Amino acid sequence: LVFVHDNSAKPNLNSSNTRLALLDGNKEEVVTMPASTVAEAEYWFAGCVAIVGDFFHFVPVNKFSRTNPVETEKLHCVELFKRAPPPSTPAFCMGKTLKINIRNSENNTDINDAKIDIVRVKGQHLESINVTSAMIASDKLSLEGNGIYKVDVYRQGFQTGSNEVSISCDINKCNQCDPSITIPMVGAIRKKHPRVVLVWQKERKNPGLYAIQRNMETGVRQCVSRNNRQCNGVTVNAHNAVSNANHFKTMSVGSKHIGKAGNIKYYTIVVNLKSDGNGNEVVDETIKNSKVHVIVTDSSGASLRVNMRTQTYKKDKYWIVGCMGGEYMVTASFTEINQFLDSPPEDGVDYCKHFLSKGLKNCFAGLKGPSYSVADNGGLIKQTMFDSAKECADECTLMQDCQAFDWFGPGDSEFKSCLLYKSGKLSGSLDDGRVRYASVCPKAGRN
């Protein structure tokens, strides 16, 4: 019987953010306390634990009370396991391992001596895997069961890399069980040239990654970085033909001459899925199983991940990931589209036309961050909430009195807060620990 007692003068379990960690030396299971439904409850009866061989089996109960469950529930676990005995350890293919390929996204070389954290997802619970030095040296994880394995890797000089793989080895087909996962890591990035990484699993063959470049002032399409066509604002990685075998491709976006007036760009990020079939045919299961996703990282290290929305996929050929742009090309400028087409998107409507600034003083183009702010502001017009920096910027662009704004990004305590100011100056990079983006846009006739 596992329970938590709040023995403070005024018990308040709901404000305690209580979690339990159950460990046996091989695995860790983390249990988060739900909200208490009993006023002034002192006890959280979390659940029951049974020992099965070398492992434990936890069953949640989640009952709250003002009395000690040892007194009122002492036979609860006995009766529970009588009704539903702990399952025996499920059969699994012995000796199987997960191959972990950690690669440099820039040149496709191996990255050695990375720190590896692995969690297996089991329903609502997380099981932390003990990663030994031998596993790190061989880049192989010994497997003890099926499930979703989430892998995070850390290496000095690189941004944290992550990926996940669903393992479902059939005990009757162990010779077909050979799981692997590739994690491309992003190193140093040039300012104003964020890196876009496309990652997929081995069920898929050779998807393509490209961008459509347009002028932010006019909306004119300038180039498409597809089929080896040159595009001065897109650098396709020369190693993509080789990294394709490791299930990832990369490119960088950002014009070399972005500082010139009228030369600020925006980009539509596209993946060519190279699917067979079209229209409303059945969903291609290889897409669902491929965990296709795109990671965007800017020079400050700010990163975001877009998972392909497979629920709406109907064997379409193109995935429109999203849009980004502006003078400084920060990750916060990205807006997600996550839609599918049967025909090349460059031949149709502009899915990123909301980046256009025809006839307006664009408050978005000069966005900087994530450690910038508006200094010496001329007064707060209003504070509101927006899902992206682009939406916050658009509000300022369309508001006659607004000439500066702050927007707080993911990881900040004020995430999505948008502050609109009458005027201001752009600060330098601040060391205040805040994830804050800012821009100023003086307008004609305004002080």
Short description:
The protein has 447 residues and is mainly beta. It has helices at 69-72, 76-83, 133-138, 240-243, 285-288, 389-398; strands at 2-5, 19-23, 27-32, 43-52, 55-65, 97-104, 115-122, 125-129, 140-142, 147-154, 161-167, 180-185, 195-199, 208-215, 221-224, 234-236, 248-253, 265-272, 293-297, 303-307, 318-325, 335-341, 374-375, 380-385, 404-408, 417-421, 425-426, 436-440. The protein has 6 helices and 28 strands.
Report on the structure:
With 447 residues, the chain is mainly beta. The protein is built from six helices and 28 strands. The strands form seven sheets. Strands 2-3-8-7-10-11 form a six-stranded antiparallel β-sheet, with no helix packed on it. It has a five-stranded antiparallel β-sheet with strand order 16-17-13-19-20. The protein is globular and about 75 Å long.
| Count of runs of 4 or more consecutive helical residues | 6
Mean of the pLDDT scores?
87
Helix-strand category:
mainly beta
User: Quick one: overall form?
Assistant: globular
Main sheet makeup: 6 strands, antiparallel
Largest sheet: spatial strand order: 2-3-8-7-10-11
How many extended strands?
Answer: 28
Contiguous low-pLDDT stretches (5 residues minimum) are 277-283
Percent in helix:
under 10%
Rg (C-alpha, Å): 26 Å
Taking the alpha carbons of the first and last residues, their distance comes to: 68 Å
Residue fraction in strands: 35-45%
